[in-house]
Design brief:
Largest sheet: none
Order of helices and strands: HHHHHH
Radius of gyration: 24 Å
Number of strands: 0
Strand content: under 5%
Length: 139
C-alpha cells in the first residue's frame, strides 16, 4: 500500500511538472474552464458571461490553495504577449479610414468619452440615491 501511495505521489508530481512546462496544456485548460462556465451559464439561463464566471472560479481556486497561479503562468504570459493580435482588425479599420485621424475621429472620441462619463455619473448618482434611501428606511 505504501509503495502505491509513493508511486501515485510521484506520478502526480510528474503530471504537475509537465503541466507547468506546457503552454499549450495551460491554454487548453484556461479555454476549458471558460467553455465549461459558459455552458453552465447558458444552461442555467444566467445572463453573466462565461469568461467572467470562469475567472471567478479560477480566482477562488487560487485563493483556496487548490491551484497555484504558477500553474497557468506560462500560458497566461503567452496569451498576454499575443493579445495585440486580437486588436489587429480594429487597427486595420483605422488604417483603411484615414479620416478617423482627423476631425471626425476627434468628434467620435469626444462622443465616446462624454457618453462614458455620463453613464458613470448617472450610475454613481443612482447608487448614491438608493443608498441614502435604504439608510433612511432603516432608521
Amino acid at each position: 500500500m505504501d509503495t502505491f501511495l509513493v508511486s501515485l505521489r510521484r506520478h502526480r508530481a510528474g503530471l504537475r511538472r509537465g503541466f507547468r512546462r506546457s503552454r499549450v496544456l495551460q491554454i487548453l485548460a484556461l479555454v476549458a474552464v471558460w467553455l465549461l462556465a459558459d455552458a453552465l451559464m447558458r444552461q442555467w439561463g444566467v445572463p453573466v458571461p462565461g469568461g467572467i464566471v470562469g475567472l471567478c472560479v479560477l480566482l477562488l481556486a487560487f485563493a483556496l490553495g487548490w491551484l497555484s497561479p504558477r500553474t497557468f503562468s506560462g500560458g497566461a504570459r503567452w496569451l498576454l504577449a499575443e493579445m495585440l493580435l486580437f486588436f489587429v482588425p480594429a487597427a486595420m479599420i483605422l488604417l483603411d479610414n484615414r479620416q478617423m485621424f482627423g476631425w471626425l475621429g476627434l468628434k467620435l472620441l469626444a462622443v465616446v468619452v462624454g457618453g462614458t462619463l455620463l453613464v458613470m455619473a448617472a450610475t454613481a448618482m443612482t447608487v448614491e440615491l438608493l443608498l441614502r434611501r435604504s439608510q433612511r428606511d432603516e432608521r
